[in-house]
Design goal:
Elements: E1 4-8, H1 15-23, E2 40-47, E3 50-57, H2 65-82, E4 85-91, H3 98-109, E5 114-119, H4 126-129, E6 141-143, H5 152-159
Helix pairs in contact: 2-3
Bound molecules: guanosine-5'-diphosphate and magnesium ion.
Guanosine-5'-diphosphate (GDP) binds near residues 15, 119 and 145.
Length: about 160
């Protein structure tokens, strides 16, 4: 497979909301399998007449905090292996958490292109709060609202360059 975009990030930042928006009603082309892939969803996205596979990571079964964090790290490592491009989603309403920092550290070591999507920027005022995410050390940030779709076009314009 080629042209694969993985959405990674800690729980509740809005990954699945973006995934649903990108894949709409298009059918998943890969069935979920046992083990760690049980927690991943595959769909087909389309932007400016280019098709690509979108992977939604998350939906973790474990509830112990340690296992939880380990599972998220595992998903990030798989995403780096499997995807051509990674969208690292963070949440403007919470700022940078320890887990965000951990994920950023893993992603900075990867050779794959990473796009930081600062989600829940639902209004103009929140854009100034988003600037703290530059300190993740992953370059440009993209302010989006997965809920309304604002900013997602600008993000996809950049992502699609890799496909
Ligand atoms: P995931 O755990 O990262 O997959 O996050 P979800 O997509 O399940 O979303 C977690 C929560 O954030 C849900 O209540 C969503 O409705 C909410 N959410 C997602 N995107 C946005 C957004 O752009 N703005 C706001 N205000 N809420 C959002
Ligand atoms: Mg989810």
């Amino acid at each position: 497979m080629s042209n694969i975009l993985a959405i990674v990030g800690r729980p509740n930042v809005g990954k699945s909301t973006l995934y649903n928006r990108l894949t709409e009603s298009r059918k998943a082309i890969v069935d979920d399998e046992s083990g760690v892939t049980r927690d991943r969803h595959y769909g087909i996205g389309e932007w400016t007449h280019k098709n690509f596979t979108v992977i939604d990571t998350g939906g973790y079964v474990a509830n112990s905090e340690d296992v939880f964090e380990a599972a998220i790290r595992e998903q990030v490592l798989i995403a780096i292996e499997e995807a051509n491009v990674i969208v690292f989603m963070v949440d403007v309403t919470t700022g940078i958490t320890d887990l965000d920092d951990d994920i950023a550290q893993i992603l900075r070591r990867s050779k794959k292109p990473v796009y930081v999507a600062v989600n829940k920027v639902d209004n103009f005022q929140l854009q100034s709060d988003a600037t703290v995410f530059y300190s993740l050390g992953l370059g440009e940030i993209y302010c989006i609202s997965s809920m309304s779709g604002s900013g997602t076009g600008e993000l996809l314009d950049e992502v699609i360059v890799n496909f």
